[in-house]
Amino acid sequence: MKLPPEGARWLVAIRWLACAAVLAAVFVGSTVLDALAAPLALYAILGAMVAYNLVFHFSQRDWGASQRNVERNIAVQILLDLIALTLLLYFADMPRNPFLFYFVFHMIIAGMYLRGLTPYFFAGLATVLVGAVMLLEYLGWIPPFPLHFRGESPDEWPLEGTYLLWVFGAFASTVWMAVYFTTSIRRYVDQAHAEIRQKEKLLGIGQLVAGIAHQIANPLDGLQNCLRHVGERLKDDPHLTDYVQMMADALERIERTAKRVQAFARPRGIAMQSTDVNAVVQSTLQFLGTAPERNIRVATELGTVPPIQGDPYTLQEVLFNLCTNAVAAMPEGGSLTLRTRALGRRDEDQMHGVAIEVIDTGVGIPRTHLERIFEPFFTTRADRGGTGLGLGLCRMLISEMGGRIEVRSSLGRGTVFTIILNPAAKPAAAGEP
After folding, report:
1. How far apart are CA 100 and CA 127, in angstroms?
2. Full domain range(s) for residue 388
3. 148 in a domain, yes or no?
4. Shortest CA distance to 393 belongs to which of 202, 236, 206, 224?
5. Is the pTM of this model over 0.70?
6. Does 195 share its domain with 304?
7. 227: which of 65, 126, 261, 411 lies 20 to 30 Å off by Cα?
8. Per residue in 153-205, pLDDT tens?
9. CA distance 108 to 117
10. Three-class secondary structure of residue 417 per DSSP
11. Number of domains the chain contains
Protein backbone atom coordinates (compact mmCIF):
# COMPACT_ATOMS: atom_id res chain seq x y z
CA MET A 1 0.00 0.00 0.00
CA LYS A 2 1.44 3.35 -1.04
CA LEU A 3 0.87 6.27 1.28
CA PRO A 4 -0.20 9.44 -0.51
CA PRO A 5 2.37 12.09 -1.48
CA GLU A 6 0.59 14.50 0.85
CA GLY A 7 2.61 12.86 3.64
CA ALA A 8 5.65 14.99 2.83
CA ARG A 9 3.49 18.11 2.71
CA TRP A 10 1.83 17.12 5.96
CA LEU A 11 5.22 17.16 7.67
CA VAL A 12 5.80 20.70 6.43
CA ALA A 13 2.43 21.83 7.75
CA ILE A 14 2.85 20.21 11.15
CA ARG A 15 6.36 21.60 11.50
CA TRP A 16 4.90 25.11 11.72
CA LEU A 17 3.10 23.95 14.87
CA ALA A 18 6.38 22.49 16.14
CA CYS A 19 8.14 25.83 15.52
CA ALA A 20 5.39 27.66 17.39
CA ALA A 21 5.69 25.21 20.29
CA VAL A 22 9.48 25.64 20.42
CA LEU A 23 9.09 29.43 20.39
CA ALA A 24 6.61 29.29 23.27
CA ALA A 25 8.79 26.87 25.27
CA VAL A 26 11.94 28.94 24.82
CA PHE A 27 10.11 32.17 25.66
CA VAL A 28 8.56 30.74 28.83
CA GLY A 29 11.75 28.95 29.84
CA SER A 30 13.95 32.04 29.41
CA THR A 31 11.71 34.91 30.53
CA VAL A 32 9.15 33.44 32.92
CA LEU A 33 11.08 30.58 34.52
CA ASP A 34 14.59 31.89 33.85
CA ALA A 35 15.70 28.26 33.54
CA LEU A 36 17.55 28.27 30.21
CA ALA A 37 21.29 28.81 30.13
CA ALA A 38 21.55 29.60 26.40
CA PRO A 39 18.27 31.03 25.07
CA LEU A 40 19.97 32.81 22.18
CA ALA A 41 21.30 29.50 20.83
CA LEU A 42 17.81 28.04 21.03
CA TYR A 43 16.35 31.01 19.15
CA ALA A 44 19.02 30.58 16.50
CA ILE A 45 18.12 26.90 16.06
CA LEU A 46 14.45 27.89 15.86
CA GLY A 47 15.34 30.36 13.11
CA ALA A 48 17.11 27.60 11.19
CA MET A 49 14.00 25.37 11.52
CA VAL A 50 11.82 28.14 10.15
CA ALA A 51 14.27 28.74 7.29
CA TYR A 52 14.47 25.14 6.08
CA ASN A 53 10.73 24.70 6.53
CA LEU A 54 10.21 27.72 4.26
CA VAL A 55 12.42 26.02 1.68
CA PHE A 56 10.32 22.86 1.91
CA HIS A 57 7.12 24.92 1.72
CA PHE A 58 8.05 26.76 -1.48
CA SER A 59 9.61 23.72 -3.17
CA GLN A 60 6.60 21.43 -2.77
CA ARG A 61 5.48 21.94 -6.37
CA ASP A 62 8.74 20.46 -7.67
CA TRP A 63 8.63 17.30 -5.60
CA GLY A 64 6.47 15.31 -7.99
CA ALA A 65 4.00 12.62 -7.07
CA SER A 66 6.19 9.51 -7.45
CA GLN A 67 6.75 7.32 -4.42
CA ARG A 68 10.52 7.74 -4.65
CA ASN A 69 10.30 11.54 -4.55
CA VAL A 70 7.91 11.41 -1.62
CA GLU A 71 10.17 9.10 0.38
CA ARG A 72 13.26 11.14 -0.46
CA ASN A 73 11.68 14.37 0.76
CA ILE A 74 10.37 12.76 3.93
CA ALA A 75 13.84 11.32 4.63
CA VAL A 76 15.48 14.73 4.19
CA GLN A 77 12.92 16.36 6.47
CA ILE A 78 13.40 13.73 9.18
CA LEU A 79 17.19 14.09 8.93
CA LEU A 80 17.07 17.86 9.45
CA ASP A 81 14.54 17.50 12.25
CA LEU A 82 16.74 15.01 14.10
CA ILE A 83 19.69 17.39 13.92
CA ALA A 84 17.56 20.35 15.04
CA LEU A 85 16.01 18.40 17.91
CA THR A 86 19.43 17.19 19.06
CA LEU A 87 20.75 20.77 19.16
CA LEU A 88 17.64 22.06 20.93
CA LEU A 89 18.01 19.39 23.62
CA TYR A 90 21.76 19.93 23.95
CA PHE A 91 21.25 23.62 24.78
CA ALA A 92 18.40 22.73 27.14
CA ASP A 93 19.95 20.10 29.42
CA MET A 94 19.48 16.95 27.33
CA PRO A 95 19.96 14.39 30.15
CA ARG A 96 17.20 16.01 32.25
CA ASN A 97 14.95 17.30 29.50
CA PRO A 98 11.69 15.29 29.27
CA PHE A 99 11.34 16.29 25.60
CA LEU A 100 14.19 13.88 24.86
CA PHE A 101 11.62 11.21 23.97
CA TYR A 102 10.15 13.39 21.20
CA PHE A 103 12.56 11.52 18.94
CA VAL A 104 9.96 8.75 18.99
CA PHE A 105 7.63 10.78 16.77
CA HIS A 106 10.22 10.88 14.01
CA MET A 107 10.77 7.14 14.35
CA ILE A 108 7.03 6.53 13.93
CA ILE A 109 6.91 8.78 10.85
CA ALA A 110 9.93 7.01 9.35
CA GLY A 111 8.38 3.61 9.99
CA MET A 112 5.11 4.69 8.37
CA TYR A 113 6.46 6.35 5.24
CA LEU A 114 9.90 4.89 4.52
CA ARG A 115 10.73 1.43 3.24
CA GLY A 116 13.49 -1.09 3.78
CA LEU A 117 16.20 -0.34 6.33
CA THR A 118 15.80 3.45 6.18
CA PRO A 119 13.70 3.67 9.42
CA TYR A 120 16.39 1.67 11.23
CA PHE A 121 19.03 4.02 9.85
CA PHE A 122 17.24 6.94 11.48
CA ALA A 123 16.88 4.99 14.73
CA GLY A 124 20.63 4.39 14.67
CA LEU A 125 21.31 8.04 13.84
CA ALA A 126 19.14 9.28 16.73
CA THR A 127 20.86 6.86 19.09
CA VAL A 128 24.32 7.99 17.97
CA LEU A 129 23.48 11.70 18.20
CA VAL A 130 22.03 11.50 21.70
CA GLY A 131 24.69 9.09 22.91
CA ALA A 132 27.48 11.29 21.54
CA VAL A 133 26.13 14.42 23.24
CA MET A 134 25.77 12.65 26.59
CA LEU A 135 29.23 11.07 26.35
CA LEU A 136 30.96 14.29 25.34
CA GLU A 137 29.24 16.19 28.16
CA TYR A 138 30.23 13.53 30.66
CA LEU A 139 33.86 13.60 29.48
CA GLY A 140 33.86 17.39 29.64
CA TRP A 141 34.75 17.81 25.98
CA ILE A 142 31.73 20.04 25.37
CA PRO A 143 30.13 22.38 27.93
CA PRO A 144 26.81 21.34 29.48
CA PHE A 145 23.81 23.68 29.54
CA PRO A 146 21.81 22.57 32.58
CA LEU A 147 18.36 23.86 33.38
CA HIS A 148 18.28 26.08 36.49
CA PHE A 149 14.94 26.36 38.22
CA ARG A 150 14.26 28.70 41.11
CA GLY A 151 15.45 27.24 44.39
CA GLU A 152 18.13 25.06 42.75
CA SER A 153 21.85 25.68 42.99
CA PRO A 154 23.92 25.34 39.78
CA ASP A 155 25.78 22.33 41.18
CA GLU A 156 22.71 20.48 42.49
CA TRP A 157 22.48 18.23 39.39
CA PRO A 158 26.01 17.12 38.46
CA LEU A 159 26.42 14.74 35.51
CA GLU A 160 26.56 11.25 36.97
CA GLY A 161 27.62 8.34 34.80
CA THR A 162 25.10 5.78 36.05
CA TYR A 163 22.22 8.21 35.60
CA LEU A 164 23.35 9.05 32.06
CA LEU A 165 23.64 5.36 31.24
CA TRP A 166 20.11 4.64 32.47
CA VAL A 167 18.65 7.58 30.59
CA PHE A 168 20.46 6.60 27.40
CA GLY A 169 19.37 2.97 27.75
CA ALA A 170 15.74 3.98 28.19
CA PHE A 171 15.95 6.38 25.25
CA ALA A 172 17.66 3.93 22.88
CA SER A 173 15.32 1.04 23.70
CA THR A 174 12.27 3.29 23.23
CA VAL A 175 13.48 4.52 19.85
CA TRP A 176 14.31 1.07 18.51
CA MET A 177 11.07 -0.47 19.80
CA ALA A 178 9.09 2.35 18.20
CA VAL A 179 10.76 1.68 14.84
CA TYR A 180 10.34 -2.07 15.11
CA PHE A 181 6.65 -1.97 16.04
CA THR A 182 5.83 0.71 13.48
CA THR A 183 7.55 -1.12 10.61
CA SER A 184 5.99 -4.43 11.69
CA ILE A 185 2.53 -2.88 11.70
CA ARG A 186 3.25 -1.28 8.34
CA ARG A 187 4.24 -4.66 6.85
CA TYR A 188 1.12 -6.26 8.28
CA VAL A 189 -1.06 -3.48 6.86
CA ASP A 190 0.64 -3.84 3.45
CA GLN A 191 -0.03 -7.58 3.44
CA ALA A 192 -3.63 -7.14 4.59
CA HIS A 193 -4.18 -4.46 1.95
CA ALA A 194 -2.83 -6.78 -0.76
CA GLU A 195 -5.09 -9.60 0.42
CA ILE A 196 -8.12 -7.29 0.46
CA ARG A 197 -7.36 -6.12 -3.06
CA GLN A 198 -7.11 -9.72 -4.21
CA LYS A 199 -10.39 -10.58 -2.52
CA GLU A 200 -12.04 -7.66 -4.28
CA LYS A 201 -10.56 -8.83 -7.58
CA LEU A 202 -11.80 -12.38 -7.02
CA LEU A 203 -15.21 -11.04 -6.06
CA GLY A 204 -15.40 -9.12 -9.33
CA ILE A 205 -14.30 -12.18 -11.31
CA GLY A 206 -16.83 -14.31 -9.45
CA GLN A 207 -19.65 -11.91 -10.28
CA LEU A 208 -18.57 -11.89 -13.93
CA VAL A 209 -18.44 -15.69 -14.10
CA ALA A 210 -21.81 -15.98 -12.37
CA GLY A 211 -23.31 -13.56 -14.88
CA ILE A 212 -21.91 -15.54 -17.80
CA ALA A 213 -23.21 -18.79 -16.33
CA HIS A 214 -26.63 -17.18 -15.89
CA GLN A 215 -26.65 -16.06 -19.52
CA ILE A 216 -25.79 -19.62 -20.56
CA ALA A 217 -28.43 -21.19 -18.33
CA ASN A 218 -31.33 -19.14 -19.70
CA PRO A 219 -31.12 -20.25 -23.37
CA LEU A 220 -30.41 -23.82 -22.23
CA ASP A 221 -33.95 -24.06 -20.89
CA GLY A 222 -35.34 -23.06 -24.27
CA LEU A 223 -33.06 -25.50 -26.09
CA GLN A 224 -34.12 -28.36 -23.85
CA ASN A 225 -37.80 -27.60 -24.36
CA CYS A 226 -37.37 -27.43 -28.14
CA LEU A 227 -35.39 -30.67 -28.14
CA ARG A 228 -38.07 -32.36 -26.08
CA HIS A 229 -40.72 -31.40 -28.65
CA VAL A 230 -38.47 -32.56 -31.49
CA GLY A 231 -37.98 -35.89 -29.72
CA GLU A 232 -41.71 -36.42 -29.45
CA ARG A 233 -42.02 -36.06 -33.22
CA LEU A 234 -39.20 -38.54 -33.89
CA LYS A 235 -40.35 -41.41 -31.71
CA ASP A 236 -40.82 -43.63 -34.78
CA ASP A 237 -37.15 -43.30 -35.80
CA PRO A 238 -34.94 -45.09 -33.23
CA HIS A 239 -31.74 -43.81 -34.86
CA LEU A 240 -32.76 -40.15 -34.63
CA THR A 241 -34.18 -40.73 -31.15
CA ASP A 242 -30.72 -41.82 -29.97
CA TYR A 243 -29.20 -38.64 -31.38
CA VAL A 244 -31.84 -36.53 -29.66
CA GLN A 245 -31.18 -38.32 -26.37
CA MET A 246 -27.41 -37.70 -26.69
CA MET A 247 -28.10 -34.02 -27.36
CA ALA A 248 -30.40 -33.88 -24.34
CA ASP A 249 -27.73 -35.50 -22.16
CA ALA A 250 -25.12 -33.03 -23.42
CA LEU A 251 -27.40 -30.08 -22.67
CA GLU A 252 -28.06 -31.46 -19.21
CA ARG A 253 -24.33 -31.69 -18.55
CA ILE A 254 -23.89 -28.11 -19.72
CA GLU A 255 -26.70 -27.03 -17.40
CA ARG A 256 -25.13 -28.83 -14.43
CA THR A 257 -21.78 -27.19 -15.20
CA ALA A 258 -23.38 -23.73 -15.42
CA LYS A 259 -25.10 -24.28 -12.07
CA ARG A 260 -21.83 -25.41 -10.46
CA VAL A 261 -20.12 -22.29 -11.83
CA GLN A 262 -22.86 -20.10 -10.40
CA ALA A 263 -22.62 -21.80 -7.00
CA PHE A 264 -18.82 -21.61 -7.03
CA ALA A 265 -18.66 -17.95 -8.09
CA ARG A 266 -21.43 -16.61 -5.87
CA PRO A 267 -19.83 -14.14 -3.37
CA ARG A 268 -20.11 -15.32 0.22
CA GLY A 269 -18.56 -14.71 3.57
CA ILE A 270 -17.15 -17.65 5.48
CA ALA A 271 -20.06 -19.48 7.14
CA MET A 272 -18.70 -22.13 9.49
CA GLN A 273 -20.64 -25.38 9.46
CA SER A 274 -20.17 -29.12 9.57
CA THR A 275 -18.63 -29.99 6.21
CA ASP A 276 -18.09 -33.31 4.43
CA VAL A 277 -14.50 -33.10 3.20
CA ASN A 278 -14.79 -35.98 0.74
CA ALA A 279 -17.86 -34.40 -0.88
CA VAL A 280 -15.97 -31.11 -1.29
CA VAL A 281 -13.04 -32.93 -2.91
CA GLN A 282 -15.32 -34.70 -5.38
CA SER A 283 -17.19 -31.53 -6.32
CA THR A 284 -13.87 -29.71 -6.82
CA LEU A 285 -12.65 -32.36 -9.24
CA GLN A 286 -15.93 -32.20 -11.14
CA PHE A 287 -15.46 -28.48 -11.51
CA LEU A 288 -11.76 -28.76 -12.43
CA GLY A 289 -12.52 -31.04 -15.34
CA THR A 290 -9.64 -30.03 -17.69
CA ALA A 291 -6.73 -32.06 -16.33
CA PRO A 292 -7.19 -35.16 -18.55
CA GLU A 293 -6.84 -32.98 -21.65
CA ARG A 294 -3.27 -32.18 -20.59
CA ASN A 295 -2.17 -35.81 -20.13
CA ILE A 296 -2.63 -35.56 -16.38
CA ARG A 297 -4.05 -38.49 -14.46
CA VAL A 298 -6.35 -37.46 -11.61
CA ALA A 299 -6.84 -39.82 -8.68
CA THR A 300 -8.49 -39.65 -5.27
CA GLU A 301 -7.68 -41.50 -2.07
CA LEU A 302 -10.59 -40.61 0.18
CA GLY A 303 -10.28 -41.97 3.65
CA THR A 304 -12.88 -42.35 6.36
CA VAL A 305 -12.76 -38.92 7.95
CA PRO A 306 -15.08 -37.06 10.30
CA PRO A 307 -16.83 -33.85 9.19
CA ILE A 308 -14.75 -30.72 9.66
CA GLN A 309 -15.74 -27.29 10.95
CA GLY A 310 -15.45 -25.03 7.92
CA ASP A 311 -17.10 -23.49 4.90
CA PRO A 312 -17.59 -25.92 1.98
CA TYR A 313 -17.53 -23.22 -0.70
CA THR A 314 -14.38 -21.58 0.69
CA LEU A 315 -12.68 -24.97 1.01
CA GLN A 316 -13.65 -25.70 -2.61
CA GLU A 317 -12.07 -22.40 -3.69
CA VAL A 318 -8.83 -23.28 -1.91
CA LEU A 319 -8.70 -26.81 -3.33
CA PHE A 320 -9.48 -25.53 -6.81
CA ASN A 321 -6.61 -23.04 -6.54
CA LEU A 322 -4.17 -25.71 -5.33
CA CYS A 323 -5.26 -28.12 -8.07
CA THR A 324 -4.85 -25.40 -10.70
CA ASN A 325 -1.32 -24.72 -9.46
CA ALA A 326 -0.57 -28.45 -9.50
CA VAL A 327 -1.75 -28.77 -13.12
CA ALA A 328 0.42 -25.78 -14.08
CA ALA A 329 3.42 -27.46 -12.43
CA MET A 330 3.06 -30.49 -14.77
CA PRO A 331 3.44 -29.07 -18.30
CA GLU A 332 4.58 -32.47 -19.61
CA GLY A 333 1.81 -34.36 -17.85
CA GLY A 334 1.84 -36.31 -14.63
CA SER A 335 -0.34 -37.38 -11.74
CA LEU A 336 -2.59 -35.28 -9.49
CA THR A 337 -3.84 -36.99 -6.35
CA LEU A 338 -6.23 -35.69 -3.71
CA ARG A 339 -6.05 -37.61 -0.46
CA THR A 340 -8.02 -37.22 2.76
CA ARG A 341 -7.11 -38.81 6.08
CA ALA A 342 -7.92 -38.50 9.75
CA LEU A 343 -5.03 -37.37 11.95
CA GLY A 344 -6.27 -38.81 15.24
CA ARG A 345 -3.88 -37.88 18.03
CA ARG A 346 -0.83 -37.59 15.78
CA ASP A 347 -1.13 -33.81 15.46
CA GLU A 348 -0.67 -32.03 18.79
CA ASP A 349 -1.84 -28.66 17.48
CA GLN A 350 -5.10 -29.91 15.92
CA MET A 351 -5.86 -33.23 17.55
CA HIS A 352 -8.49 -35.36 15.78
CA GLY A 353 -8.20 -33.01 12.78
CA VAL A 354 -8.57 -33.89 9.12
CA ALA A 355 -5.80 -33.58 6.52
CA ILE A 356 -6.45 -32.92 2.83
CA GLU A 357 -3.42 -33.48 0.62
CA VAL A 358 -3.01 -32.15 -2.94
CA ILE A 359 -0.15 -34.16 -4.45
CA ASP A 360 1.42 -33.59 -7.85
CA THR A 361 4.39 -35.09 -9.70
CA GLY A 362 5.44 -31.79 -11.21
CA VAL A 363 8.64 -29.80 -11.35
CA GLY A 364 8.70 -29.09 -7.61
CA ILE A 365 9.56 -25.94 -5.66
CA PRO A 366 13.17 -24.92 -4.85
CA ARG A 367 14.02 -24.93 -1.16
CA THR A 368 14.84 -21.21 -1.30
CA HIS A 369 11.29 -20.48 -2.48
CA LEU A 370 9.40 -22.66 0.01
CA GLU A 371 9.45 -20.00 2.72
CA ARG A 372 8.21 -17.30 0.35
CA ILE A 373 5.47 -18.95 -1.68
CA PHE A 374 2.75 -17.65 0.66
CA GLU A 375 3.99 -14.06 0.43
CA PRO A 376 1.75 -11.73 -1.58
CA PHE A 377 2.95 -11.15 -5.16
CA PHE A 378 5.71 -13.76 -4.97
CA THR A 379 5.48 -15.97 -8.07
CA THR A 380 7.75 -18.00 -10.31
CA ARG A 381 5.20 -17.93 -13.13
CA ALA A 382 5.04 -14.20 -13.88
CA ASP A 383 5.80 -14.87 -17.56
CA ARG A 384 2.78 -17.19 -17.74
CA GLY A 385 0.30 -14.88 -16.03
CA GLY A 386 0.99 -15.76 -12.41
CA THR A 387 0.27 -13.00 -9.88
CA GLY A 388 1.60 -14.61 -6.70
CA LEU A 389 -1.68 -13.93 -4.89
CA GLY A 390 -3.37 -17.35 -4.92
CA LEU A 391 -1.38 -19.16 -2.22
CA GLY A 392 -1.40 -16.16 0.10
CA LEU A 393 -5.17 -15.97 -0.22
CA CYS A 394 -5.47 -19.74 0.35
CA ARG A 395 -3.51 -19.51 3.58
CA MET A 396 -5.62 -16.58 4.75
CA LEU A 397 -8.90 -18.41 4.03
CA ILE A 398 -7.77 -21.62 5.74
CA SER A 399 -6.56 -19.58 8.71
CA GLU A 400 -9.98 -17.93 8.97
CA MET A 401 -11.45 -21.43 9.25
CA GLY A 402 -9.07 -22.23 12.10
CA GLY A 403 -6.75 -24.44 10.07
CA ARG A 404 -3.32 -24.27 8.48
CA ILE A 405 -1.52 -25.15 5.24
CA GLU A 406 1.79 -27.00 5.09
CA VAL A 407 3.95 -27.69 2.04
CA ARG A 408 6.81 -30.01 1.20
CA SER A 409 8.46 -30.36 -2.18
CA SER A 410 11.37 -31.94 -4.05
CA LEU A 411 12.75 -30.63 -7.32
CA GLY A 412 11.77 -32.89 -10.17
CA ARG A 413 9.64 -35.12 -7.97
CA GLY A 414 6.62 -33.00 -7.11
CA THR A 415 4.90 -31.08 -4.34
CA VAL A 416 2.47 -31.91 -1.55
CA PHE A 417 0.19 -29.23 -0.06
CA THR A 418 -1.50 -30.35 3.14
CA ILE A 419 -4.56 -28.59 4.55
CA ILE A 420 -5.30 -29.40 8.20
CA LEU A 421 -8.71 -28.48 9.59
CA ASN A 422 -10.46 -28.98 12.90
CA PRO A 423 -13.21 -31.59 13.32
CA ALA A 424 -16.79 -30.40 13.54
CA ALA A 425 -17.26 -31.92 16.98
CA LYS A 426 -14.66 -33.09 19.42
CA PRO A 427 -14.81 -36.87 19.71
CA ALA A 428 -15.59 -38.24 23.12
CA ALA A 429 -12.61 -39.66 24.95
CA ALA A 430 -12.46 -43.34 25.79
CA GLY A 431 -14.59 -44.13 28.78
CA GLU A 432 -16.82 -41.08 28.42
CA PRO A 433 -20.54 -41.69 27.92
Report:
1. 11
2. 273-421
3. yes
4. 202
5. no
6. no
7. 261
8. 555 556 788 889 999 999 999 999 999 999 998 888 877 776 676 666 666 66
9. 14
10. strand
11. 2
